[in-house]
Structure to design on (302 residues):
């Protein structure tokens, strides 16, 4: 488990409040940091279905989980109907989605997620399918690239960075994380008083684009209303303001229909102690929704 720290662990446990016998669907299993703790609280017979796009994450988590109570599935939560066919379970007491990438994915240079580790420009969470970042940069036009950097990276230098990347790409195809970082640094030199590296936002933007993260989240949100059993809880941890806005809106719509309520009136943020211990938690916001018990619903169509 080197390098992995589950984010907002205490807050996840407090707000999901797992109880013995409850069943958990973890849609972003990662290294099972949250799931291991939740499983302890749902013992002796609460089951876990753990989903991840990343086959390596599933292999490593399998070693940490009690085999008899666990089913692990490789898949994309953006394809929920297909996943549900494989899972064969109707609804869940507890559902967790801890979005984005895991620390082990970022720290493994070969995966190509980070400019801090040289490696091939890949960035796919599921390395068995889809286009790599290098392939994407080889075909994308400057306007589209600037849009991605602006929207998903929220970088005010998006146009300048996009132009520099396309220029560098024409001289020689960008195939490594260090090559891409250098092209970005040529466009936006690093300032001594800036704590964030100029390549940070562009790398985040490309990762979101390559993995179709916003589309997957929207698919999940469109279908999450019927994932929960009566009384069941759903926690979503997001790391980008666009994601959090989508979650907030989807939860609001479900509550308006009368079947759900908020467990967390405001998004939950990490405390000072966690921020110091785990700086990667700094952008997280968690929202938790509860499906009302069957005898307690106010919707007109009940
Ligand atoms: C932040 S990590 C989860 C960490 C986990 N909660 C833990 O404590 O170990 C996010 C994980 O979700 C996976 N993931 C991201 N988007 C996904 C998607 N659409 N479908 C399935 N898994 C996804 C990533 O591969 C990564 O392993």
């Amino acid at each position: 488990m080197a390098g992995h720290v589950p984010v907002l662990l205490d807050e996840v446990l407090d707000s999901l409040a797992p109880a013995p016998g409850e069943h958990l669907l973890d849609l972003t299993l990662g290294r099972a940091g949250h799931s291991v703790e939740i499983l302890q609280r749902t013992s002796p017979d609460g089951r876990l279905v753990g989903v991840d796009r990343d086959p390596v994450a599933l292999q490593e988590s399998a070693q940490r989980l009690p085999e008899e109570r666990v089913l692990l599935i490789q898949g994309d939560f953006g394809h929920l109907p297909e996943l549900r066919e494989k899972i064969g379970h109707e609804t869940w007491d507890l559902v967790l989605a801890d979005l984005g990438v895991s620390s082990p994915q970022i720290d493994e240079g070969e995966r190509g997620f980070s400019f801090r580790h040289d490696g091939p420009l890949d960035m796919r969470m599921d390395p068995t399918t889809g286009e790599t970042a290098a392939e994407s940069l080889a075909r994308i036009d400057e306007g589209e690239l600037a849009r991605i950097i602006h929207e998903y990276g929220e970088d005010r230098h998006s146009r300048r960075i996009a132009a520099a990347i396309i220029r560098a790409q024409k001289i020689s195809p960008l195939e490594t994380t260090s090559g891409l970082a250098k092209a970005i640094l040529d466009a936006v030199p690093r300032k001594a008083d800036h704590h964030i590296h100029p390549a940070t936002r562009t790398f985040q933007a490309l990762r979101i684009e390559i993995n179709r993260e916003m589309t997957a989240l929207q698919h999940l949100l469109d279908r999450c209303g019927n994932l929960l059993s009566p009384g069941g809880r759903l926690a979503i941890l997001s790391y980008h303001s666009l994601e959090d806005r989508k979650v907030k809106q989807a939860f609001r719509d479900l509550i308006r229909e009368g079947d759900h309520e908020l467990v967390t009136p405001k998004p939950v943020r990490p405390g000072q102690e966690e921020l110091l211990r785990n700086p990667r938690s700094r952008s997280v916001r968690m929202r938790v929704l509860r499906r009302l018990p069957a005898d307690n619903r106010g919707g007109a169509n009940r």
